[in-house]
Design brief:
The protein is an alpha/beta fold. The protein contains 11 helices and 13 strands. The protein has an 8-stranded parallel β-barrel with strand order 1-2-3-4-7-8-9-13, surrounded by 8 helices. Strands 5-6 form a two-stranded antiparallel ribbon.
Length: 363
């Protein structure tokens, strides 16, 4: 694998009450908290992951932005992919916060753009993505140190950028996921990395090709990431047994309740995850080494790469071959599965951060 083909391998901090030994069975020791989630991130840093996603919720878990500021001072190399809901905070203040956190992290901050409804204030898809586009444009300008004079449907702002700047002097890259036409068009025009959820190799390939075509209309090129779960064990039988064990105490009604707690339950992406699960075989596999059981008690990314180290590695390479540049992985428990992946798979992957803290991102 040459340098340009190297992969970013990220882990997931369970900030939104999404850590279990048995899926759907709450464990007080795994509930989202500063102590538990910071240990996940610090462990991922020690284990050699390149990046970690810090997800954002409202009803669920703890606040991602304040968490990022704190954990930035307790990590050394791992990048922090902070999820930020567009429209949730006053833009000038958000730009100051993000630049400050980037300084605290010595340039290791990345931004995951979230276009979900704001708590208590739902919007139809069209205006919601219009708000997201406006926020992305203005936020990037402010983080690039540029004055803003913008009069849009949702943002009316004329001011100079804040004095505080990121380490690079430029906006961190924007990671962005979404499957509706509005989401894809927003990503094509304004994102740096397009994130997709687990799907078959053919399904992910189709998404990448569609996004390449959309981005080309804006004379842009994107990088591509896959958000998925993983279950790796020394043998395939052990990995499949671990998958079965994970669901062994799940009450179907509780699983449905968990799926409906997220603000994105009606999204196109969630609908696709449901389709995969419904089309899977009796044991939950929709294709070789892609298991849909996680989606029985989780909204959002609902499938896992399951197998022995060679099988998991081969699956990652298959996704890489169709254009995936980054993997954001997770497992149950998050600490335990991170250790197993780092032991069995990570040493055989040539990997590194997609962006350094001196990178200049496209505007």
């Amino acid at each position: 694998m040459n340098k340009k083909d190297s992969l970013e391998v990220a882990w997931f901090a369970a900030l939104c009450d999404d850590d279990y030994e048995f899926l759907g069975v709450p464990n007080p020791d795994l509930k989202s908290s500063w102590s538990h989630c910071s240990e996940i991130v610090k462990s991922a840093d020690r284990l050699g992951f390149d990046n970690v996603l810090l997800p954002s919720g409202y009803e669920l878990g703890i606040d991602a932005t304040s968490f990022a500021a704190a954990v930035a001072t307790q990590t050394e190399k791992i990048q922090l992919l902070l999820a930020v809901r567009m429209g949730e905070m006053w833009l000038p203040q958000l730009a100051r916060q993000l630049a400050t956190i980037d300084q605290m992290a010595n340039g290791r901050l990345l931004i995951n753009i979230i276009s979900s409804d704001l708590p208590g204030a739902p919007l139809e898809s069209g205006p919601r993505y219009q708000r997201t586009r406006e926020w992305m444009l203005v936020l990037r300008a402010l983080l690039n140190g540029q004055p803003v004079d913008f009069q849009g449907d949702f943002v009316q702002l004329s001011l100079d950028p804040p004095r505080v700047r990121t380490v690079s002097g430029h906006s961190p890259p924007f990671y962005f996921g979404g499957f509706s036409p509005d989401a894809k068009e927003t990503a094509a025009e304004h994102a740096d990395v397009f994130l997709t959820w687990p799907d078959t190799i053919a399904g992910v390939s189709s998404t990448v090709e569609e996004m390449r075509e959309r981005a080309s209309r804006y004379h842009r090129e994107l990088k591509y990431g896959l958000r998925a779960h993983v279950i790796v064990r020394e043998t395939e039988d052990e990995a499949r047994s671990a998958a079965v064990r994970l669901l062994s105490k799940l009450d179907p009604e509780e699983g449905e309740k968990i799926r409906k707690r997220s603000l994105d339950t009606a999204s196109v992406g969630v609908a696709r995850q449901n389709e995969l699960r419904e089309s899977a075989s009796k044991d939950g596999f929709v294709e070789e080494n892609l298991w849909t059981g996680v989606g029985r008690a989780r909204s959002g990314a609902g499938a896992a790469i399951v197998g022995n180290p060679e099988q998991v590695l081969a699956k990652i390479h298959a996704y890489r071959d169709i254009g995936i540049n980054a993997f954001i992985l997770s497992g149950y428990t998050h600490m335990g599965e991170a250790d197993l992946f780092a032991r069995y798979v990570l040493p055989d992957l040539e990997h590194g951060a997609l962006y350094s803290n001196s990178s200049t991102q496209p505007d």
